[in-house]
What does this fold into?
Amino acid sequence: MYQLRYGLCLRAHQSAHFFDLGRIRSVITMLKLAIYGKGGIGKSTMTANLAAAFATLGKRVIQIGCDPKADSTINLLGGKAVEPVMDYLRDQDDYPTDFRQISAEGYKGVLCIETGGPTPGLGCAGRGIIATFQLLEELKLFAQWKPDVVLYDVLGDVVCGGFAAPIREGYAQKVLIVTSGEKMALYAADNINRAVRNFEDRSYARVLGLILNHRNVENETQKVQAFAAERNLAIIGEIPRSNDIIRFEEEGKTVVEGDPSLEVSKTFLDLAKRLLETE
It folds into this structure.
């Protein structure tokens, strides 16, 4: 079953009809953000806390983790991982007929989905993302769930066809790049920015700006400000280095859920408000 369906998904990727979902969604008002950045820079932490912040503001939110590690949504689910879509397709005898079979509701109703990937060492993780998006289209996820905000947490070290799908194929409208002042984080941010700009003339997603996730490196703010100015990018938000984030993640929570009164939580809430204003 998995091999048959997976093949169909790949063939669908090659057809003009695969991206009907993007055209359908374009008539529905929702904020669609893809969040990229170097591996280990804190994309999942940023994305999950933004999802929690949007939900706290009363929005209906979907978060889709687009990484083989499948750990994007774990802190929205009390530390319990949802079964990745690719695991379901590989291990289950029955093909899913309802999106609830491949998702879980987390903090304040955030719908959590993980694409997952192939068996380690076998197959292409990017194709796993493509297959997942095809499945979500078949299950009419967006039409049924009717989200206000959709967040894609995407592995950003490589921007191949699969990992570029959220920005290239009309799934996301805007891209946020998470970086710090570290050299390799800025290098990855530059690669991602150039990749997205390659698609701008096709009316695909555009880079909205940077999220500076502080690592407390020397002259960090100045480095990122200079990087942004050279590329005509805005710094949309700055997240301070915080032990509270780490503390609540050890409990399987976002800091927004753990204590919304903390200054770092208020930073995420303020950022969510600003992002809604861009819609």
